[in-house]
Design brief:
- This protein is α/β, with parallel strands linked by helices.
- About 35% of the residues lie in helices and about 25% in strands.
- The protein is built from 6 helices and 9 strands; from the N terminus they run βαβαβαβαβαββαββ.
- Strands 3-2-1-4-5-6-7 form a 7-stranded mixed β-sheet, with helices on one face. It has a two-stranded antiparallel ribbon with strand order 8-9.
- Strand 1, helix 1 and strand 2 form a beta-alpha-beta unit.
- Helix 1 packs parallel to helix 6 and helix 5 crosses helix 6.
- The longest helix has 25 residues.
- The structure holds 5-O-phosphono-beta-D-ribofuranosylamine.
- 5-O-phosphono-beta-D-ribofuranosylamine (GRF) binds next to helix 1, strand 5 and helix 6.
């Protein structure tokens, strides 16, 4: 049984997709051991509590410096004894020691087809605003392993979504969530939980579709 810790900062719709997947069985061989947010007002924390999942807030604002926060965050994560860490809209930089410790055991959902519209400064609506500004016809989402960079780790799954005439950033964001994020994040967790993802020479492979 894969023990999963989900790290969130906002509304938690991706967390909800994972919770639903576990409860309905489309994610097998996995359980959500805990949810951690940097934002005490994150509705994602409510979602966890509504489903009886341990949840806590570790906010950088409560610590004298980033080093102390990083220490406490890693301690809180380890307290759940995770096999996999899932960043689902977590907007805080992951401590380097955590990236090293959880190499190929930490994944992130990004709302674009990496390597487009990713890296520092590309998060939330900004990603979709940039896509509309560039005039791309296809967007989408990516699940990737987290490495020391920003959105640079091995890509596990991607799903494309069409841009429609008249799309605003908000409309496009919602479509990418509904049609891509909420599908590929649960699927990636199920694949990992069932030993179907491997990493070789810095690339991730799904062993059987
Ligand atoms: C999602 O768009 C995700 O791709 C990005 O942050 C957002 C989180 O949304 N990383 P939610 O908190 O899962 O609703």
């Amino acid at each position: 049984m894969l023990r999963v810790v989900v790290m969130v900062s906002g509304g938690g719709t991706n967390l909800q997709a994972v919770i639903d997947g576990v409860e309905k069985g489309s994610i097998s061989n996995a359980e959500i051991a805990g949810v951690i947010s940097n934002n005490k007002n994150a509705y994602a924390l409510e979602r966890a509590k509504n489903h009886g999942i341990p949840a806590q807030c570790i906010s950088p604002k409560d610590f004298a410096d980033r080093g102390k926060f990083n220490e406490k965050l890693l301690e809180a994560v380890e307290g759940y004894m995770p096999d996999l860490i899932v960043l689902a809209g977590f907007l805080v930089v992951i401590p380097p020691e955590m990236t090293v410790k959880y190499k190929d055991r930490m994944i992130n959902i990004h709302p674009s087809l990496i390597p487009s519209f990713c890296g520092t400064g590309y998060y939330g609506l900004k990603v979709h605003e940039a896509a509309l500004a560039r005039g791309v016809k296809v967007v989408g989402a990516t699940v990737h392993f987290v490495d020391e960079g920003t959105d640079t780790g091995p890509i596990i799954l991607q799903k494309a979504v069409e841009v429609q005439p008249g799309d605003t950033a908000e409309i496009l964001q919602r479509r990418v969530m509904e049609q891509a994020e909420w599908k590929i994040l649960p699927r990636a967790i199920d694949l990992i939980a069932n030993g179907k993802v491997a990493v070789k020479d810095g690339k991730a492979f799904v062993l059987e579709e």
